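Researcher: We're teaching a course module on how sequence relates to structure. For the next exercise, students receive a sequence and then see the predicted structure as tokens, so they can try to spot secondary structure elements on their own. Here is the exercise chain.
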Amino acid sequence: MSQPFDASYFPPAPVLEVSLAFPDDPPSVGPITAFVDTGADGTFIPLAYLKALKVERSDQTAVQPFFGSPRLADVYMIDLFFGDSRMTAIEVVANEENDEIVLGRNVLNKLMLLLDGPHALTDILEKRPGLR
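Model: And here is the predicted structure for the students to work with:
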């Protein structure tokens, strides 16, 4: 799976298309472009998408925005799809600040990614390329 970087960011940023699902259901939201953020601990999903899935809050957690004060945020469990590949029971935090999906390390660490800056592509790899 290969996705061009999003040129609406400056400089262009790595993104992936995702679909969202209530756990064990087929995807019902998406596909939506999600920002790949290797510096984010967790994954943030806009509250409007979580409401569309009709999922219930499972917990709360403290979040520390890059700029801003720490605050409590609601946590939800959803399934994420990357094409036909499903990740089950992923803990996500409600994003009440904007309508951007941010994929953090709790998701990215389960993927084999190639961020190809010179070609402005993000690839999910099926197998590890040979080392030189």
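Model: If you want an answer key for the exercise: The chain has two helices and ten strands. The beta strands are 2-4, 15-21, 29-36, 43-46, 59-63, 71-82, 85-95, 101-103, 113-116, 121-124.
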